[in-house]
C-alpha cells in the first residue's frame, strides 16, 4: 500500500520521493541532497525538485530549495500547473 495525497501516490525510497500517477504526462520527484539538525532531529536540508515527463523521462522543470516544506510547495505548484495546461 502507498500513501496517497490528493488521490495520487506519494512514495519514498531512501532519499528519493516520487509523487504522481505514471499514467499522466508527468510526475514530481524530490531528491534529498543533504540533511540538517533541527532541535535534535535530522531533517531534509537541500532538496532537488524535478518534474519528469512520463512519456520519455526528460526533465521538464528543475530547481533546488532549502527544506522539504518549501520544496514540496514549489514542486506542487509546477506539477499542478503543467497538468492543467491540457
Question: Could you describe the 3D structure shown?
Answer:
With 86 residues, the chain is an alpha+beta fold. The protein has 1 helix and 8 strands. The protein has one helix at 68-84; strands spanning 3-5, 8-13, 16-19, 26-32, 35-38, 41-44, 46-53, 59-66. The chain has a 6-stranded antiparallel β-sheet with strand order 1-2-3-4-7-8, with helices on one face. Strand 7 and strand 8 form a beta hairpin. The model has no long low-confidence stretch (mean pLDDT 95).
Helix and strand arrangement:
Elements: E1 3-5, E2 8-13, E3 16-19, E4 26-32, E5 35-38, E6 41-44, E7 46-53, E8 59-66, H1 68-84
Antiparallel strand pairs: 1-2, 2-3, 3-4, 4-7, 5-6, 7-8
Radius of gyration, whole Å: 13 Å
Principal-axis shape:
globular
Residues in helix, %: 10-25%
Spell the H/E element sequence. Answer: EEEEEEEEH
Question: Concise description?
Answer:
By secondary structure, this protein is of the alpha+beta class.
Defining key terms:
single chain; 86 residues; alpha+beta; 6-stranded antiparallel sheet; two-stranded antiparallel ribbon; globular
Amino acid at each position: 500500500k502507498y500513501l496517497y495525497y490528493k488521490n495520487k501516490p506519494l512514495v519514498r525510497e531512501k532519499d528519493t520521493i516520487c509523487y504522481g500517477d505514471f499514467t499522466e504526462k508527468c510526475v514530481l520527484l524530490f531528491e534529498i541532497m543533504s540533511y540538517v539538525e533541527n532541535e535534535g532531529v535530522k531533517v531534509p536540508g537541500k532538496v532537488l525538485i524535478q518534474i519528469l515527463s512520463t512519456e520519455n523521462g526528460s526533465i521538464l522543470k528543475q530547481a533546488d530549495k532549502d527544506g522539504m516544506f518549501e520544496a514540496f510547495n514549489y514542486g506542487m505548484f509546477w506539477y499542478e500547473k503543467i497538468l492543467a495546461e491540457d
